[in-house]
Amino acid sequence: MIHGDNTLVLLLAGGVGSRLNILVQTRAKPAVPFAGFYRIIDFSLSNVMNSGLSQVGVLTQYKPLSLMRHLGTGEAWDFTGRTRGVKILPPRTGFQDSDWYKGTADAVRQNIDFIRSHPAKETVILSGDHIYRMDLDDMLRFHRRKQAHVTIAMMVVPLSEIHQFGAGITNTEGRIVEWEEKPRIPRTDLASMGIYVFDTEYLLRLLEEDRDEVDFGMHLIPKAIERDNVFAYPFHGYWRDVGTVQAYWEANMDLLKGDSEISPQAWGIRPNPYADRLQVDRCPARFASGCVVEGSMISAGCVIEGEVINSVLSPGVRVGKNARVRDSIILHDCVLEEGAVVDLAILDKRVRVGAGAVVGQGEDKTTPNKACPKHLYTGITMIGKEAEVPPQAVIGRNCVVTPSRKAGDFPSLLIATGETI
Amino acid sequence: MKLKPKVLAMILAGGRVDELNVLTAYRPKSAVPFGGFARVIDFALSNLMHSGLERVAILSQYRSFSLISHIGVGAVWDMTGRYRGVSILPPSQGSGQSSWYRGSADAIHQNLDFVQYHDPETILVLSGDHVYNMDYREILQYHRDKDADLTIACLQVPMAEASRFGVAEIDDEDGERGGRIHQYQEKPADPRFNWASLTVYCFRPSVLYEVLEANAREDDSFEFGRDILPRIMAGQYRVYGFKFHGYWGYTRTVAEYWQTNMDLLGAEPKIQLEEWGIRTNLEHRSVRDCQPLKAGPGAHIENSLVYNGCVVEGRVENSILFPGVHVKSGAEVRNSVLFYDNVVGHGAILDTVVSDVNVTFGARVRIGEPGVPQADKVTVIGWNNHVLDGTVIGSGCTLHPNLRPEQMGGEIKNNEVVR
Question: Which of B286, B306, B337, B341 to mutate: most A Cβ within 10 Å?
């Protein structure tokens, strides 16, 4: 905790994350709920808190409202007090009429005044949309020990996935000697996690050199590697970018395994129980006589009368008599009426599935969604916030029902696999 | 304009009762956990919040630490702000007569300076020990409508049980709403009327001051039920009864406590936590840091309440699990109430058990006997105990807190007490 008093943390929370489809239609990716009543950003915020860091700026841009509500005063992560604080940093009009953030480095550049007003030897820059636990204090000590200008947290990933990441080649000391951003042909399996420690003075110099360099991975990092000391801080353990529907679903399912690698509670991950009147107002989950609950995570406020297998339920979900949920993620206050079936689906908040309706029907899980074939291709069906699936409707695989659709918006009670409403 | 509150609520939360046994070894009765995540006093506090009464004092002297950490600053019940607040009033020394609280009335008498400082129009005295849902605005309105000196909330109980309560004879002046109280008796041996007092009193402050002073001068017993109410009945005062028709649960004995917990369960539970809007302090015991319940692949949960932070791999039926309870595979928990952080080992079977915080049941432990659960067969276990693997414990047993493991070895027979 030696760095606790002066290290500045900048959390990049502006991403659209459009591959999460309807989940990001009303909120930014870091604000997407995860593991019942957490939001994705809770993992980064809690890592910051548990590392003893307490000066935080959160850079937002896309649909920041639910994120701002969630952060509140930062009290949930102990960011309130004399020397602690969390500030939301939205884009502002500046030299030009419109200064939207053009990239990660541009976003930080536009907040140079914030960095200068919090003098700190080092600045930690991380993204708010990953699921992991990491001791940033240890990374800071590594950074000092190596006398690095920049330290990048990196981990080994399968070669087939390296094309999604910044890839680095290190020498025996751990210094990064070569860098490729999202390489087509893999030459290394060491991937950047998008977590950087910068010497603050060095960061400011680098940012001021060329205003057209708007991205860390594309521009600033390769330049720094070429000229100065950039080290790879090795990370081992569970880390997921849940930026796709498939990855989001898989990470939620990872929670349910008996010897699960993710455990928000054991990791010290903290939700904000006061935001959205979430947890504080919820009673214990109620399990009726004759219900079935297996291999699942169930939040307070749920009422289970039917069957829940291998699923993650956020607070306030009601599963009616003879209703069945399997392999699904059900967000806050959804209602599954009597006899409804939800199989391999993601339901956003306050969805109502009418009596006897089926969400996720059919053996064909591989015909992708017609409108978004790259989002939904493994059978997962998504229902948008506050949509109502009419009683007896049958929805196939890889379907999307966009938010707030009501019975009248359904062309028929039979929605074929791959369709979108 | 209703800035400054006109009602001061005072919660009597100090007591402990021997009958509740080991559950109150380290906490007052009002701080006993209840309902899978809350404490008994949360019912009074939540009722106050929903009634818009947010100037509150809590009188407490017995092992207050648990209660004080539970109340915090009162933000959970919206009791912070310019004219809102919750003050915990422990006994204190001063230049005048001061001592431990010698009874519920003495607790208020010793804090008359606090009461008079707030200069309320009405003083609402409540007990922190009861489980019920009441909109206090109704009794306050009745109290004002009748221009009463004292209004007591009462519930009609079977005549056979009336001797356990303070009972009033209420006439039908206002039908189902209430009426004048003509007689009041504290725990009469041979009751002739059966409107039991809920320990919800609305006082005209001047009358309360007067009677408390007189009682302090003339008596050496200081209880509302035993001393103050009879004293008021004997004087020339307007005393009314407000008739309450809802559920009222009490937790005076282990059997009652267990029964009141069971009233949370079933297809139509008598206690409707959600509808009643029960609020509790999730900071207490870091409940806010728990993750959702994790049910293992072989879990079976029926007719139960389970809060965040639990892990269930075995069977749970007709039971209430507080945060942090772990029921391991092959274990069965039936008709039981397990407080925070209990661990039930592989293959253990618990039937009709109330277990305080931090109790570990080893593998294959057997407690209670199968059959129809009965309130008088509850085995109650004090906190911080480790029941060794294979131990057999009967029904109706009492295990005191912090026992050495060897004190619980082998077999404990029905109704045995281990201390």
Answer: B306
Q: Is the Cβ–Cβ distance between A174 and A234 less than 8 Å? A: yes
CA–CA dist B151, B204 (Å, integer): 9
| pLDDT tens sequence across B56-113 | 999 887 777 788 888 888 888 888 887 888 988 877 766 566 677 788 888 888 888 8
- What are the b/e assignments for B337-353, b being 16+ CB within 10 Å? bbbbbbbbbbbbbbbbb
- Residue among A381, A277, A407 at smallest CA distance from A325: A381
Tell me phi and psi for residue B339, to 5 degrees: -75, 180
Q: Are B353 and B339 in contact (CB under 8 A)?
A: no
Q: Model confidence over A381-408: pLDDT tens digits?
A: 999 999 999 999 999 999 999 999 998 8
β-bridge mates for residue A358, sequence order = A341, A394
Averaged over B309-317, what is the pLDDT? 96
**Cβ–Cβ gap B297/A298 under 8 Å:** no
Residues 204-263 of A with CB under 8 A from B: 255-256, 258, 263
Q: Measuring CA to CA, which residue among B250, B254, B262, B387 is closest to residue B335?
A: B262
B272 touches chain A (CB under 8 A): no
A363, exposed or middle or buried, with CB in 10 Å at 0-12, 13-18, 19+?
A: exposed
**Better-predicted residue by pLDDT, A335 or A64:** A335
Q: How far apart are CA B170 and CA B193, in angstroms?
A: 9
Following DSSP, what letter does each residue of A358-374 receive, concatenated? EES-SS---S--SS-TT
For residues B284 and B303, give the distance between their C-alpha atoms in angstroms, rounded to a whole number: 26
Cβ pair A157, A165 in contact under 8 A: yes
**pLDDT score at A4:** 43
CB contact under 8 A, B296 and A294: yes
Strand pairing partners for B249?
Answer: B131
State pTM to two decimals: 0.91
User: Which of B76, B301, B309 comes nearest A293 by C-beta?
Assistant: B301
Q: B262, B19 in Cβ contact below 8 A?
A: no
Q: How far apart are CA A48 and CA A287, in angstroms?
A: 36
pLDDT, tens digit, 9 for 90 and up, residues A271-292: 988 876 667 789 999 999 999 9
Please answer yes or no on whether A312 and B292 come within 8 Å at the CB atom.
Answer: yes
Q: Is A73 touching B (CB cutoff 8 A)?
A: no
The number of C-beta contacts closer than 8 angstroms across A and B is 105
What mean pLDDT is reported for chain A? 89
What residue has token string 């500045």? A8
CB-based contact B278 A312, cutoff 8 Å: no
Determine, for residues A298 and B290 on separate chains, whether the beta-carbon distance falls below 8 Å.
Answer: no
Question: Which chain A residues are closer than 8 Å to B36 by Cβ?
Answer: 283-284
Q: Which residue of B has its CA nearest to A259?
A: B296
Per DSSP, helices labelled H in B28-135 are: 41-50, 65-71, 104-109, 112-118
- Which of A273, A298, A312 is facing B282, going by the closest CB pair? A273
CB contact (8 A) between residue B295 and residue A298: yes
Comparing alpha-carbon positions, the chain B residue that sits nearest to A314 is B292
CB-based contact B282 A297, cutoff 8 Å: no
Whether B138 shows a pLDDT value over 90: the answer reads: yes
Contact state of A300 with B308 under an 8 Å Cβ cutoff: yes
| Nearest alpha carbon to residue B35 among A315, A286, A313 | A286
Tokens of B336: 């039981």
Cβ distance A265 to B301 less than 8 Å, yes or no, reads: no
Give the contacts of A215 (CB within 8 A, at least 6 positions apart): A103, A104, A105, A106
**pLDDT tens for each residue of A99-116:** 567 788 888 888 888 898
**Token digits of residue A143:** 């950074």
For residue A150, pLDDT over 50 is answered with yes
